């Protein structure tokens, strides 16, 4: 499948920088505000509530990830990854969601 030039640029941004900055999009400001408010409300919940939504499989990588749970690394040895995770944990928290049409990748 050949991707359109805009899709190629988006993919390039994710592959080389890790994120993109999307501007001049058609999403109304009130919709964006509602999304940011809902996001802030979720992350303001207590840890116990958020942890009930933690991801169950790294293959799907969907659900809540608490600070220190993940560590980006090229290492594959579990003990080495655990070691660097404890030395310098990734302090971000995230909530990854996706389509419900693939049961092998649960939300």
UniProtKB/TrEMBL annotation:
Bias (Basic and acidic residues): 90-107
Domain of life: Eukaryota
InterPro entries, A to Z: DIOX_N (IPR026992), IPNS-like_sf (IPR027443)
Non-haem dioxygenase N-terminal domain mapped to chain residues: 7-101
Pfam families assigned to the protein according to its UniProt record, in alphabetical order: DIOX_N
Ranges where the record places region Disordered: 87-107
Protein name: Non-haem dioxygenase N-terminal domain-containing protein
Organism of provenance: Claviceps pazoutovae
């Amino acid at each position: 499948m050949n991707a359109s030039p805009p899709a190629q640029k988006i993919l390039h941004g994710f592959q080389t920088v890790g994120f993109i900055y999307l501007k001049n999009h058609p999403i109304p400001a009130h919709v964006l505000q509602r999304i940011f408010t809902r996001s802030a409300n979720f992350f303001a919940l207590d840890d116990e509530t958020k942890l009930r939504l933690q991801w169950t499989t790294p293959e799907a990588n969907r659900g809540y990830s608490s600070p220190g749970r993940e560590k980006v690394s090229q290492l594959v040895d579990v003990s080495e990854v655990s070691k660097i995770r404890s030395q310098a944990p990734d302090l971000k928290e995230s909530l990854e969601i996706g389509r419900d049409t693939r049961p092998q990748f649960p939300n």
